[in-house]
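Re: beginner question about structure tokens

> Can someone show what the tokenized structure looks like for a real chain? I only ever see the sequence side.

Sure, here's an example I had lying around. Input first:
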Amino acid sequence: MRALLLGGTGDANRLADALARAKVDAIYTYAGRTRIPLGHTLPVRIGGFGGADGLASFIRQEKITHVIDATHPFAAEMSRNAVTACAATGVALLALERAPWSKTPGDNWIDVADIDAAVTALPETRSNVFLAIGRQHLAPFAAKPQHAYMLRFVDAPDGKLPLPEAEVIVSRGPFTAEGDRELMRTRGIAWLVARNSGGTGARAKIDAARELRLPVIMIARPELPERPRAESVEEVLAWLGHDARLGA
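And the corresponding structure tokens:
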């Protein structure tokens, strides 16, 4: 058995640690947009594959038998490529995919389908906006330059941002609802824009917004092809362990 872990998320990092402790023959790969704290001994590959065909070639070249897609829920292109490449090579695929957040009493969500719809949903009058969507999707919000945007990144941005007025906070989670509530209160945040990433590590801002009774523009996850999925590291290890006992 030889596994390929498609990562770049906190869930993927935890799985990489578990694979290393279990002495699973595995390669950890991620796009490299953020610096990942590596506390494991797995071989690491940084960068893209060149689409589904490139990923399939890598799977054959490295004699991969199992692929675990633990990319971000919004990394749709990589997830689609994984489905295509695994189908082409006959390799087993499992997605480590946390459940999306669900609205709870007191939440004031404006559900939208994508980034463009989120821009449209923002008000025309000037507001302080916590834009919690990652650095790859900022440019569309330049269409509403009247707002003061607060951004939170894992790493400091390279170069100029596409927004005329933006405060960047460099910090790595997990965060707490208490901390995010104070952050939003002191910055006078009136709107939160977030992607429905799910999980616990990024939920603090959602809970804080509910406590402050702020509207949340919630961007839905992209649609992905059907694939087997797990919600925990333990489920992934059981999936690998079952196949390992069969001699895969």
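Each token stands for a local structural state, so reading them left to right follows the chain. Helices lie at 10-21, 51-61, 76-89, 115-121, 177-187, 204-212, 233-245.
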